[in-house]
Amino acid sequence: MNENPGTEAFASHSARLAQIANPKSEIVHYGDDDPLPLDCGVKLAPFSIAYQTYGTLNAAKTNAVLVCHALTGDQHVANEHPVTGKSGWWETMVGPGKPIDTNRYFVICPNVIGGCMGSTGPASTDPATGKPYGLDFPVITIRDMVRAQARLLDHLGIPDLLCVLGGSMGGMQVLEWAATYKDRVYAAVPIACAARHSSQNIAFHEVGRQAVMADPDWCQGRYIDEGKSPRKGLAVARMAAHITYLSDETLHRKFGRNLQDREKVTFGFDADFQVESYLRHQGVSFVDRFDANSYLYITRAMDYFDLAADHGGVLANAFTGTATRFCLVSFTSDWLFPTEESREVVHALNAVAANVSFVEIETDKGHDAFLLEEPELLATIGGFVSAAALKRGVALSGEGELP
Amino acid sequence: MNENPGTEAFASHSARLAQIANPKSEIVHYGDDDPLPLDCGVKLAPFSIAYQTYGTLNAAKTNAVLVCHALTGDQHVANEHPVTGKSGWWETMVGPGKPIDTNRYFVICPNVIGGCMGSTGPASTDPATGKPYGLDFPVITIRDMVRAQARLLDHLGIPDLLCVLGGSMGGMQVLEWAATYKDRVYAAVPIACAARHSSQNIAFHEVGRQAVMADPDWCQGRYIDEGKSPRKGLAVARMAAHITYLSDETLHRKFGRNLQDREKVTFGFDADFQVESYLRHQGVSFVDRFDANSYLYITRAMDYFDLAADHGGVLANAFTGTATRFCLVSFTSDWLFPTEESREVVHALNAVAANVSFVEIETDKGHDAFLLEEPELLATIGGFVSAAALKRGVALSGEGELP
Fold first, then answer.
1. Which CATH class is domain A25-206+306-392?
2. Where are the domains of chain A?
3. What is the model's pTM?
């Protein structure tokens, strides 16, 4: 990793900072008189939510689908990313004719509170100081993220959701939605997630946070003010996390022990192996698009997530009386959120006689499978959401409700 | 992790540096006329090997047992550590009346070349400059470590070994011994290891190295000269690595989501969870006893290990004609060196009709199980080595050969 980022990196750094205050997205602002109450006790005000929408809300308002993004995701689920120029992070899933068909559904994807693409987070300006919050930003939870999303639905005049879906941290938000806003969720699709963050996952997050905080350019969280950026620390954090998103099998299949543009090892510390080169690239490109403090806050929100603990220690209590239709999905080679953790949620849902289906998909692609062109995933979710829509009387694609 | 290490940390820092040039161990020096040829092409001279011995070599010289240490181990296998004051790292296995019974066997444990406890490594003085080598130290391999150990046996007048054993990187050395010095190894016990380092393991090592090299106090490897120490970077590296030594189940059983000395989460970035506190402690205490550049070099040696590649791409070729008796051990919950990798070695040994036994031990303790009080491990190895000794005519404990 280069100590001095090049011109290109500085350009994307500026592009990224610009998205914090003036995102290339819809944005809704809430004033001092309209705070967001947080689990930590703080009332956050003012605050903003940046979001993207796709498709059209029908007259009956029955076709709204909320997509919740993962740790390092954002609202740009199905359009070109304003910083990286890359296509949306879930274009296999969301778009015209896709499983989440934007010709049929009205899709909303907000940036989470604590994020760095326009929703209020640690890089936003603290009205008390006129400077970026840094560590003065209150610690947020998955429930706080979901509370903010419910406020966004109010703003959009949407009483309830046909479906809320997401993978990884997105799946945690789906579970929280189903528990906290039972009447507003017709169908829920938590993918590759868990009802609580495991000890091993907390451990990996802590390594990432320590890597960021060990970087002197982190400046105790005040790096934006200081004109610096903890690039090396955040890159190391991303590298460690990235390994957990892939399976051992994927790494073996994609890279094995193949060398990078060389015939022999160099007996040095260059990236001799393809897997080293790949990881370094993952680290470096991540820092061009993400805020280091947001990384601290969002990982912390995941660590704190424990739905059973919030409901008297019994997970089933979180879902008592639910009428939501659930479809859970896990992947055989996902070791970050193993199938067993989805199964625990299924057991809890069974205990309250909920309407639940569960699919474990056979793949060697690890946790990342939820983001990939995985035919069984696309077919499962497309079918499940379409069935829920039919049951609810939402018109088929191309019929009726389109403008 | 505290930015300014306290008095205690400085004391152990000095104690650690003292062990580099003047270890509290036996040491053998080789002069300029007696270099160690390395795989990278360099002839290392002068060089030293620091080692511990336990027990007595019998007159027939048939009872020598070589213990090979793992990545962050050293020669203090069964005595108090001169820096930490803790007991030896394998006292469950090695000592009077233990499975590797020092009343019966003459046990030798050398510090590896590239290490930092008296054997020549990157913290040693480079004769060309009078300063520590730093990154001018040549990159070493597992075979180089083993070559140095063979030289030590020559020095001790030991023609061959009753047994060579070790876990993790120690197990890699055992395999290398069996391949390179077939006539000098009567029995071999590779534990929790593999014949080549996997893509995922290279990836984790690369994260650790990048964490060290990202620390400005690493000073491009010249930190000793500069009176600095990349404490934060090395601690992050250790934290990431430490997760891989434990299983998900162990972390869940030991820590779960338990909080550290508090009733509620603090909505901050302190170590709220026990697993965070534990990991931070692992990181901080490691830097008091280990050299950061040694960490780079030894992880690299493991990455480069690929016994099949060194033998025409066919692992069995490494063992052609072997008369060594093998006992391989793996652990069900070890995801760093999964059972499958031991099984590949067994298949290769079967292909050359070697004398091999293989035990997969059921445990939830992960890779670290090889260092722990694991009854089946101790019984397996004690029985195997004793049977080999009997076959070779080594007197029983307490008989004949004792002084």
1. alpha beta
2. 25-206+306-392
3. 0.95
